[in-house]
Records
---
Amino acid sequence: MSLAFCSRKLIQLAATASALCLSGCNSSGDDPNSAYNRALLEQGAQEKVKSILRDPVSAEFSGMIVRPLPEPGVGIVCGYVNSRNGFGGMSGPKRFVITPDLFQIEGQTPLADLLRTWGMVCNP
């Protein structure tokens, strides 16, 4: 086998592998339950929560629950956020719920309303 033949075959193999990956690795907009769509929902929720925090850089998220809705890019996100308060200490985990029509966070939403919403949309 010549060097040119081997190089051509290697290029064809690389092109085939790239095409397979592109067709299967990023099913971004089609499937609401895709990892890509779920990550976008989670990232969007974190940015929304950070936008109201006193120290957004200190935000630590946990217990994230992502429930995609049928339309790609739309869903419900629940979780906890801990961030620094005005005294420089961590405030402790606070629940939040984000839906297409609603944004509730513990400490800024009446607790009874937050717990009702949490029970309806965040519990499995």
---
Amino acid sequence: MHNIKRNFDKIYQTIKALNLPDFDSEGNILKVGRKPKLSDLEVISLNLTSEYMSIDSENLLFKKIKSCHYDDFPCLIDRTQFNRRLLYCGFDAFRNL
């Protein structure tokens, strides 16, 4: 499948169905502060979508989203914030589940 949004939706629903204890009902890691535009589970799902679709770099992923799927991701964050949030979520530990 070549549709980023469709793949993202499938991966996001699958992860959300796991009911992971570290995440609240909105898909964010339990922490104090303001609510982010893109939830932590959405950030993880977007990264897994890029890996599933063999998109090797975040730069290419964000170019594709901005050129073809910008309306599908209205709350898209910038790449720096994307990478920081992946580190904060402990994505490497999540990947090893």
---
Amino acid sequence: MKVKIRLFASLREITRIRERVAEVAAGTTPAGLLAAMVRDLPALEGLRAHIIFAVNGDYVAGDAVLNDGDEVAFIPPVSGGRAGRRETGGSGGCPRAFFHPTN
């Protein structure tokens, strides 16, 4: 069966792959598909434990069984944003970050 694999953020940057179609056996899971990709693309190993999966737009566990035609997204941990000013806020004087949009 065939599934479409989509890579996001740092996974896309590391592999230079946005998406690809893969032929997989019946019973393949997102975790199994990722393991196969790591064998072909060892640079993914460092992020492997932190990747979450989505199938056809819904988050799933790594052991979900894939079906023919599924779209599987590998989503790495994401952080960042623009460093902003910190301001004290709230009744306890806890710091609160705030975002300053740019034009």
---
Amino acid sequence: MQRRTVRRIWTVPSLYLFILLYCILLVTLACGCSNNQKGNQKYIDEGIAQYNNQKYDLAIINFDLYLSEDNTSIDAARAYAWQGVSYEELGNFNRALQCLDNATRIKQDEPTIWRAKERVFLEMGRNEEAAFAGRKAARL
């Protein structure tokens, strides 16, 4: 009888942290708790730190926490862009593209967002759109 090996994606501590952060997100959304914009900035900073530590799922949660309070400012474009590259790292290119589209709707003249879109389009095999995004980034 052959044993099947199961690859564990989550370690127990990271799973508990993910569940805790997700619960905080749900409670924040449910009660309509509101912080000022400077208070919300910590979510972007923490998300970037999680991204740099290759904890992309936790980074996405932090960006969601920020975007639940503000999804139209320049900082929101930054959060969408970081969220997009986090999804890109996880291989979820459709969701990455949605986030990057949201970022470009808010801040159309940011070349780094267009470069990220170019990478995602290339990963998806959408070469013409990748070329357009690359040309747009080069013009900016």
